[in-house]
Structures are given as structure tokens and as C-alpha cells.
């Protein structure tokens, strides 16, 4: 697990062995079972998470009780209720394991410490948060502007393995569709090939 984290960080920044040891000292690792929660709406968010193995879903439940899938987090992704994490306010999102999952956990104090002590880690997080913001904008635009089939095809291009790992109900909630609409887009028993 340590090597995977180091390789992930070093895709953006360089770290000496001593610097990586300092980074690693700020993290704890956790193993979770399918259906366990890392974050529940209304609770204080103490950590953000780097996914080593497994799959998570980030969900917001509206006033009517309807669950909206905000994102899925696969291996090598960072996930959390970042607004609540940075502001130390109650969570407005829940983060739940869809598979048995292993994560590295970074508390806010560790995040702040790394950003102060290692400028390259401040740069790493800036790059990651910026990319996440861009991806969120693109997702919003796709929900606003693209027809259902194009949203589904975009999901297949971006995350080709996701339909094999997630139920149609969850995919539909992520795409802003009903399950019935998604079923009409997908032939039973197979995922359509997307020409790139």
C-alpha cells in the first residue's frame, strides 16, 4: 500500500525517502467491508481518503429522501466531503464502500502539516483539487447539456470498468436518469462498445 501511495504522489511531485516517510507518518490505513461508511451526513468529517483498492460512492440525500450519487471513487482516487473536511463542518454527503476497500486516511491536521512542511505536497494537493474542480464542472455541464445516451457514452469512455462494478440503479442515479431510461440505453447482458 505504501508503494502505491508513493507512486501516486510522484506522478506529480518528487519526494526523497525522508520526505515520503514524513508524508506517510501523517496517514493511517483502513480496511473496510462492503456497505461500511467512511462518512455519514451530519457527522464531522475528520479525514479525506485515498483509495488503494475497492470502490466508494459519494451520495447526497435530499429533503425528500432521494439519494443522488455525486461521484464514484475507484483505485488511485481521492474522495471525501471536501467542503466539510476543510471547514470542519458537519457532512452534507455520505461516503460508502461498494466493495471491500482499503484506503489511506489523511486528517486535516496532517494535511495542514504537509502543506506547511513540504511545498511539493502543497503543490500536489493544489493540482489534485484543481483537477477535481474541473471534473466537477464538466460533470455539471454534461448533466445540463447532454442527452441521456451521450451522458452514458461519456461515462463509458471515462470509466470503462464502472458498469461491471456498479448496479444500474446507482449508475442511473449518477447520470441523473431513471433506471428504466438507463435500461433502454443498455442492451441486456452486455455493455455497448464505444468507438474512441
Automatic annotation (TrEMBL):
Entry-linked Pfam families: cNMP_binding
Domain of life assignment: Bacteria
SUPFAM superfamilies on file: cAMP-binding domain-like
CDD domains listed in its UniProt record: CAP_ED (cd00038)
Domain (Cyclic nucleotide-binding) ranges: 11-132
Protein's name in the database: Crp/Fnr family transcriptional regulator
Source organism (scientific name): Hymenobacter negativus
Amino acid at each position: 500500500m505504501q508503494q502505491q501511495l508513493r507512486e501516486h504522489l510522484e506522478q506529480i511531485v518528487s519526494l526523497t525517502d525522508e520526505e515520503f516517510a514524513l508524508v506517510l507518518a501523517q496517514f493511517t490505513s483502513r480496511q473496510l467491508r462492503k456497505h461500511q461508511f467512511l462518512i455519514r451526513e451530519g457527522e464531522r468529517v475528520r479525514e479525506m481518503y485515498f483509495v488503494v483498492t475497492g470502490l466508494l460512492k459519494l451520495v447526497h440525500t435530499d429533503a425528500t429522501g432521494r439519494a443522488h450519487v455525486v461521484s464514484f471513487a475507484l483505485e488511485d482516487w481521492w474522495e471525501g466531503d471536501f467542503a466539510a473536511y476543510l471547514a470542519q463542518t458537519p457532512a452534507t454527503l455520505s461516503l460508502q464502500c461498494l466493495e471491500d476497500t482499503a484506503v489511506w486516511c489523511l486528517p486535516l491536521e496532517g494535511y495542514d502539516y504537509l502543506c506547511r512542511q513540504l511545498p511539493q505536497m502543497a503543490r500536489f494537493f493544489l493540482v489534485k483539487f484543481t483537477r477535481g474542480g474541473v471534473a466537477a464542472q464538466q460533470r455539471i455541464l454534461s448533466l445540463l447539456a447532454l442527452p441521456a445516451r451521450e451522458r452514458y457514452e461519456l461515462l463509458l469512455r471515462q470509466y470503462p470498468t464502472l458498469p461491471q462494478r456498479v448496479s444500474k440503479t446507482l449508475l442511473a442515479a449518477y447520470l441523473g436518469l431513471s433506471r428504466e431510461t438507463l435500461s433502454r440505453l443498455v442492451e441486456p447482458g452486455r455493455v455497448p462498445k464505444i468507438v474512441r
